[in-house]
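Hi U.,

Before I forget, here's the chain from the pilot set. I'm dumping it here mostly so it's searchable later in email.
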Amino acid sequence: PSSRSAEADTHVFQVKAGTVAKSLLRKCYNNPTWVAAAMGLRTLAFPAISAGAYGCPMEVVAEIALRNAMDNEHENLPLDITFYLYDQDALDVWSAVALQMKTPFRVLSDE
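Structure:
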């Protein structure tokens, strides 16, 4: 556990007639990433923001979160980003999205 943290406002996701507020969700991943880098943090952990109670499709969350991590790789931000997912179904979705996006990331499971 760290004595410093950067938090995302997870209450910004909205579903209106099937439209996902993707730009707001992107900010939930981008802003804490830049804050963490500015604070000199080396690791950052995210949940699947808005995929639970707020109803965002897991595929959308995975694509936005993984794209953020890939963008950080290109920006050479010195962050090790970990995504903590609720269950095997979520992990399966994220793995499929990561494969489709051709990300360089490793998928780890505690099983």
